[in-house]
Structures are given as structure tokens and as C-alpha cells.
Amino acid sequence: MISPTNQVRDSDAQLETINNNAPGETAKEISKCRLIVMYTGTVVAMAGALASIFVALTISMGIDDELQYYWALNFIKSLVQDLFVSPMVAVSLNIILIKFVVKNLKVRKIIRKTTSNSVNEHILKLTMIFHHYDTKLRSPPKVNVKNHSLIS
For 28, which DSSP code? Predict the structure, then answer.
């Protein structure tokens, strides 16, 4: 029987190979420079979002009600598209690429490698984890059978 600690070690080993990290290197060992760039990018994105909201509110103060209604409808349409439609399309496209290109052994290795580098790494990790647990569930259970003979 496989212990839960072995399962965790196996899944960690799979995640390290998916991340293309060196053996023993984990996500905790990210360099300080990379963290600074990540936090700076987050701050810039938030500042850009706040600035665009400020610009939109400034413009909306100087227009009449009919044009304001038109802008509000376009804003709601863009918001719905950004929050619901685009992520669904991206997730669907990533799943299709993983199923039909990355996991397909008939596709050339260089194409599979390029595609695996271009798909979302989190979705790739999730499919690998779910595939790992799915194959464990399908495998026949190991049964210990002792050979007892009636004649000694």
C-alpha cells in the first residue's frame, strides 16, 4: 500500500519536473530580483487600473446623460467579457492544447515541448495531478494472496 507521504513526494517530484526546476529547487527559493519584478509589475498594473478609472470618471462628468448611458453599457460589456468570456476561452484553449498536442505521442517531440512551454503552467500542473490520481484509481487493487495447500 502506498502511504500518503509517498504520494506527496511523488506529486512534488512531478511538479518539479513540470516546472523544469533543478532537482531540489523549490518555489520557495525564488530569487529576490524575481520577487521585486513581480511586486513592481503588480503595483504598476494596479496603478494603471486606478488611473483608467479616474480618467473614465473625469470624462463621464463632462458628457450628457444619453452618451453616459452608452458609455456605461460599453463598460459593462467590456467588464463581462474580461471577467467571464476571456478566461473561459483561455482555459478551454489550454485544455484542448494539452489533450491533443502535449499528451499526444504521435505529435513530434519539438512541437509538444513548444506547446507545453506556451500553455498555462497551472492548468498543465492540474491536469498532470488529476491524471496521476485518475490512473491510481483505475489500477487494480493489490491483493495479498497466501498459498494454502490442503496437503502438507
Answer: G
- The DSSP code for 119 is S
Cβ atoms of residues 129 and 11 within 8 Å: yes
DSSP 107: S
Is the pTM here over 0.90, yes or no? no
Find the mean pLDDT for residues 132-151.
Answer: 57
Q: What is the band of 39 on the pLDDT scale with cuts at 50, 70, 90?
A: very high
- Non-local CB neighbours of 11 within 8 Å, separated by 6+ positions: 129, 132
Burial class (CB in 10 A: 0-12, 13-18, 19+), 94: buried
**In the chain, domain spans:** 4-20+30-138
Which of 27, 3, 25 has its CA nearest to residue 125?
A: 27
Give the C-alpha separation, 107 to 18, whole Å: 19
Distance in angstroms (rounded) separating the CA atoms of residues 133 and 118: 24
Single-letter amino acid, residue 112:
R
